[in-house]
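Hey L., structure's done. Input below.
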Amino acid sequence: MQKNKIINLEDRVPVLREKRRKRANFRLLIYVAIFFALLLLVIYFQTSISHVGKYEIYGNELLSDKEILKLADLNKKESFFTLSSKNVEQKLENKKIVEKAVVNKIFPNTIKITVKEFPVIGQTKIDNDTYALLANGYLTKDIQNDNKLDVPIFTNWEQGDELQEMASELTKLPNSIFHSISEIVYSPTQADSMHITLYTNEGYEVLTSIRQFADHMSNYPSIIKDIPQGKKGIIHLEVGAYFAPFGDNQTKQ
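Output:
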């Protein structure tokens, strides 16, 4: 029969003391870590380090970086942590040039802004100022590259329902037909308040209406394909579709 092992209490005291010391040291390390973390936070928020240090802007072609920041009411004195991404996005999207805005905060102090602008589908002159027509039907002169636009010229147009509908119809056109149009003149008649006259890069004049414009213009490629080479004239797309050479508007083909 084995004898019970007798452990002297004095032998256990150093072990217990060591465990208590380790626990005390561990708690001390936690307290020190918390203290320094809080200290760093206080320093961060009380100095310029907590302000936005850099804005990165992507996707803008019509608006400059400076204009984007101005529209969003942003500057480098903004607090990085209190800045609301949703608020900035709403401010930008309220501007009719911006279709979509996404704002991301990148620690420690960078704000990334990505915008999607409405495409430019036309340009016009109003009081000697050049305006761009956007795909949403909005006219704006707040763009940075208005002299480089490869889009149709709009003549006799004003901001209104007709322009809105015209813009909507233009966005439905395939690129091949869209880029054939050099000028669109608003030319209402007694019979049709939405009558328009188009001039194309192929040298034709097209008479049609804003109503169902995209459907009417879908006939344009097949019509000019059947016109004898070198013959120019007027393509009627109001009722039916036919071609009349210049000087003989009664001739149908």
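The chain is about 30% helix and 25% strand. Residues 50-117 form a domain with the Ubiquitin-like (UB roll) fold (CATH 3.10.20.310).

-- N.
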